[in-house]
Q: What sequence folds into this?
């Protein structure tokens, strides 16, 4: 509301000046001789241009498909894991399109980083076997996923593996450790002696690396990870009728690959851009960035064989999964009735780490008025296998947006007020590396979008971007609907009641490090958003789309089961492009600071409910904090902000998230510096540092830990004061 | 040179546009109806205004003294140690002047911080005695300085003490530890068993706190500190004829007080503004911020008695001082011939720490065009006793500048383009607290000046400010000379040959944390300078003006021996005010990036000479670093920078120093983040992190320490690349 008011006031003032000018100097004189910077100063979003953009993100007349489909087909022809020949092919493809003289950008280039990656050995594939006491192999886990089409048979399909898990040959009795959370191992350890065991865990509940890092202290020597049919397939398991290629569900041999590293960015060059300046290979181990023991992911077909034969007590109810057997802890090891009785599970892992050159492909449309202010639109380019959804849906959307905007620029129809940078990040799958390395070198940007694609829009962001997402999504038709907007469709699936706005779609926050926004938000404090189309969560319990990071995430899968007709891709391209144009062209940045204040108030309310009473018993007052400048002051100051010039307001809005950065707030959490959105393990909808410090102090009851709670209150108070004074009128 | 060229191009462009406007729209129309922002856009420094300013910083016709003398007299009437009643009186005095309706600023206010300070106990003064084995007191060190005038008799003169040194009652045999450097104790320990001893050390060579921190690990239980006549008085010792009140030299009973803490800023709220949000009193000890053992400073009158009676071997030649006796190590303890034979030295220290409210007094002249860009002029206000030179010379200069500028503003003659903030910092003497707490809350400023006053200008700064200091000092007459400028006088005392400019005055760098600039440079990366008038170093070996931090630093002392007629004060006020107006009014900020590049090149050349050969033997190449973006790239990019708008160039110039910040560069050095100017113990004129890491690695020969050298090369390389790309044309 405030921003709207400000915008009104400001536009009025500017228009008025121009009015006087014209009136005074007379209309008869040719307007072409006005100094060009006068027109520039008042350049704002052109709604007609947005309409034109929306119509150019076309449906093909031939097949009534979104015309970006061919881009998607091209991008997903072969596997393109980071630094592979397929990756290089996508680099060339993008460079060619971004340099196209009719529809390309002003400039495009490749940006290389020397980054630390981990691969299996094609000559000596990783192997998981059940071996009896005489070393006879009783059972061997499938080496690669079962092929249904040529896509799975491509020689570049990488064997499923746990990137950055060390090589090694651990052997031991098998135990079932649920999701491999710290609490899971703690409970398991009460019944089973874990020393020398191999743990089998399922995806979900804890980060990938955590499943090994949590088990190692108990003496676990190796870890298997699989996706339980309950978590991904609504329990379905048969590939003769139920799973892909008959549906979107994961086939029994499908395996989720992934990075088993903790930080975002290249781990040998922490806080530095990776330009051959390796710090030390010990660093990764030293900082507990990687699993200390070998790990291998496997399909549920094999996990079924192993888990259903385990001995020992039955695991608790919430540890049970989709298999038609009781999940036991393990004796440790197998049931005495099992053919595997008395046998070990053995892992032979041959992963190796290596430094390779990974490329970001960058492109730019230069701004006409404020070329030194940047709006960044990014998406990663590397996949695990063909990556039809992750990431090629997003890449094809980005390419289609650049085609339409590039054509408008080349035809002289448009040039944005601010510069737009497009980033096709490399090596995301290994730990958001390309985008993080990029940010480690740069410091002055505005915003970043991400997109993937399928039943409703899903958007996360810092709260100040909510408004522009709403505005853009109201102007785009929902897939398959002519009269229903993306916004109106979204609000049906997911909504909340805002004290300011009433019923609105529910946006997520950018907590943690889920995708390439991480380094922008947490490291640089740049207002960011992450948008996608997603499935209907009332109809499935799948924790993610089932082919995620497997050899089945192909064009065939995407076009049959995720987005037939690519209509959601089209809607995302229109919405994202609309947002992008608004960010690049608005005289006043469409970032709403009162929406930020609303979120901070929610967080504060939650913190008071959760912590205040107990903190008082420790002599720590939250009242002081809130008086001394928490949300109340924030809003008051926001309401007082009446700066006179667009530039000043824009700098304030742009720098708002920067004010929340504190490089000393989370000494134990590499890369996190944003005190509002940092990753938190406490799982509370409130300030992360406070929540984690409180949980730790409550559990240890150490005075020093309560001091740390006090410290986090101070950090917060100062950050919020700082943000408020950033928005306040200049003194 | 480049900047000059740019300025030419830019001014031409702007003037040209205006020219067209006027030409086209005709001159007959009233120019009063031009929109006011058009005139604003091209507002630049007005040389006539500068002349007016210089003439208004007047000499009184009555006594031909600088008219600011009465301000100085007023400020130094009573002792005004931080948070004392005298301090409050200066706060009120400044507020009154800055709120004066005819000559005050636009606004002035008090800004309070709750800071951790340390004081002696007036009821139980600290005591140093020589006690014999039967506990008889054979000798007692003077409690307070000998009074010569009423100034020294004022009841608020604080007893000499070592702020932050802990209370305690250590007793032991005395040893002489030279300057208390780590190397001094190491050498001494080879001859004397230091366990249980009291060390007497002299000022200089190591920081105050370091003299205790270095000794404690060898078992030293207490430390005395004194100023040797050789280091301050060119050997003179007699107050009947040689020292103050007969000259500027330190009387025998004079004692330098000081803060014995390590960090800058309030030490209980590291990295946070001190607003009652104390972290923990353990923090100071934990972080090794303060001496672990009691310390007391004493006069050389007493030190003479103690040192000349010491037993043991004669200390090395370079440990000898100004006393007419041989400085022995100590037996430990006294000579067998001495009346003190077999006696101990005992310290009874009653210092106590307490949190008190300390005030900065802030004032502002608001900018007309860019009120959100700030030039900061600051000086601390608190003294140890009367503080005539430190800090009142600077405060009187600041007040005289604000009187002249304030009058011009109130008369409607002038308003700066950018806002000017004046800061009268509190609690500097306790560790630069007021200014550091201020910076911990703020982030967007341009520049800071400091001034004190006496034979030649002395200036330090980041290299980019050299040019504006030269320009201003060429326009001001040197004290006592009508035809010699401050610049021409300066170059006679101290000069160097620059590859670009030829023979120029020598400016210092802002390394370490000598004064209030520290937090601005090292914590926030703000281009800063520190200017003063100083004595002729060819005529004395005094390490600082002799009355520094003693009860003799009074108006009488200043007016008789430092600056008779206050002519140097006047010259400093004119020079500093001239610089200030240029920074606030220039269309393009007068910050010269090529001068920065020249300094970086010097540093690089030095680093190559010192380190390259040995680094090669460790497989670490500096060549790579320099190719990948050290100074060569910096200069190339600087030469390519042709941005079109003043705002963009100014942002780039303003943010240049910010690009050198890396909060992770010096994990062991609290508060230092500027990779070029951070404090360094290696004492080499080159990059501090590299120099220190190299020295450590060379001494330990640990591979991990060589890795840290490699790391610092990477940090440097990235910082310089970042700075270069900050200056490069926008992509």
A:
């Amino acid at each position: 509301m405030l921003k709207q008011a400000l915008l009104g006031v400001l536009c009025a003032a500017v228009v008025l000046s121009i009015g006087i000018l014209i009136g005074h100097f007379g209309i008869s004189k040719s307007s072409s001789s006005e100094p060009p910077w006068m027109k520039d100063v008042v350049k704002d979003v052109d709604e007609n241009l947005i309409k034109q953009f929306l119509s150019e993100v076309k449906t093909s007349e031939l097949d009534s498909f979104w015309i970006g489909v061919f881009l998607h087909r091209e991008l997903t022809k072969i596997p393109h894991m980071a630094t592979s020949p397929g990756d290089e092919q996508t680099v060339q493809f993008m460079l060619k399109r971004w340099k196209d003289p009719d529809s390309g950008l002003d400039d495009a280039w490749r940006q290389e980083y020397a980054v630390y990656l981990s691969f299996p050995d094609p000559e000596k594939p990783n192997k998981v076997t059940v071996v009896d006491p005489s070393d006879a192999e009783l059972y061997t886990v499938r080496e690669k996923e079962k092929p249904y089409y040529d896509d799975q048979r491509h020689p570049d399909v990488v064997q499923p593996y746990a990137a950055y898990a060390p090589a090694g040959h651990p052997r031991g009795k098998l135990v079932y450790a649920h999701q491999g959370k710290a609490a899971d191992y703690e409970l398991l350890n009460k019944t089973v002696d874990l020393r020398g065991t191999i743990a089998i865990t399922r995806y979900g509940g804890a980060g990938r690396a955590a499943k090994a890092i949590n088990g190692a202290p108990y003496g676990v020597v190796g870890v298997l990870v699989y996706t339980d049919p309950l978590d991904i397939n609504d329990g379905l398991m048969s590939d003769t009728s139920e799973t892909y290629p008959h549906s979107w569900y994961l086939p029994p041999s499908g395996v989720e690959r992934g990075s088993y590293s903790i930080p975002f960015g290249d781990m040998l060059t922490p806080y530095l851009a990776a330009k051959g300046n390796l710090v030390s290979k010990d660093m990764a181990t030293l900082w507990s960035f990687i699993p200390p023991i070998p790990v291998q992911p496997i399909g549920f077909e094999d996990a079924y064989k192993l888990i259903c034969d385990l001995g020992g007590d039955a695991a608790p109810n919430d540890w049970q999964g989709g298999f038609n057997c009781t999940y036991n802890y393990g004796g440790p090891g197998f049931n005495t009735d099992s053919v595997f009785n008395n046998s070990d599970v053995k892992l032979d892992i041959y992963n190796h780490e290596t430094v390779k050159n990974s490329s970001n492909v960058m492109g730019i449309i230069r701004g006409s008025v404020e070329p030194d202010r940047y709006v960044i639109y990014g998406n990663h380019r590397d996949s695990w296998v063909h990556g039809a959804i992750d990431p090629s849906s997003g890449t094809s959307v980005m390419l289609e947006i650049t085609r339409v905007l590039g054509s408008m620029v080349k035809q002289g129809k448009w040039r944005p007020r601010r510069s737009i940078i497009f980033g096709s990040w490399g090596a995301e799958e290994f730990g958001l590396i390309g985008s993080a390395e990029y940010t480690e070198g740069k410091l002055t940007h505005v915003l970043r979008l991400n997109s993937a694609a399928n039943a409703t829009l899903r958007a996360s962001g810092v709260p100040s971007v909510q408004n522009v997402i709403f505005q853009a999504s109201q102007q785009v038709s929902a897939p398959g609907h002519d009269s229903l907007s993306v916004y109106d469709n979204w609000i049906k699936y997911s909504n909340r009641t805002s004290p300011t706005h009433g019923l609105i779609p529910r946006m997520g926050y950018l907590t943690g490090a889920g995708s390439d926004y991480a380094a922008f938000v947490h490291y640089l404090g740049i207002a960011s958003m992450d948008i996608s189309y997603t499935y209907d969560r009332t109809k499935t319990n799948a924790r993610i789309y089932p082919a995620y990071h497997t050899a089945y995430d192909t064009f065939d899968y995407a076009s049959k089961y995720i987005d037939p007709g690519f209509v959601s891709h089209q809607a995302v391209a229109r919405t994202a492009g609309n947002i992008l144009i608004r960010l690049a062209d608005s005289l006043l940045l469409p970032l709403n600071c009162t929406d930020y204040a609303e979120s901070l108030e929610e967080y504060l309310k939650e913190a008071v409910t959760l912590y205040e009473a107990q903190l008082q018993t420790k002599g720590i007052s939250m009242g002081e904090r809130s008086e001394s400048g928490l949300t109340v002051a924030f809003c008051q100051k926001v309401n007082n902000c009446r700066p006179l010039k667009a530039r000043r307001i824009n700098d304030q809005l742009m720098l708002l998230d920067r004010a929340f950065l504190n490089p000393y707030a989370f000494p134990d959490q590499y890369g996190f510096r944003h005190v509002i959105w940092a990753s938190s393990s406490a799982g509370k909808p409130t300030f992360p540092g406070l929540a984690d410090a409180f949980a730790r102090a409550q559990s240890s009851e150490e005075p020093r830990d309560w001091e740390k709670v006090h410290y986090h209150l101070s950090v917060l108070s100062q950050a919020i004061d700082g943000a408020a004074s950033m928005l306040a009128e200049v003194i």
In short: Residues 593-617 of chain B form the longest helix (25 residues). The first strand of chain B starts at residue 107 and ends at 119.
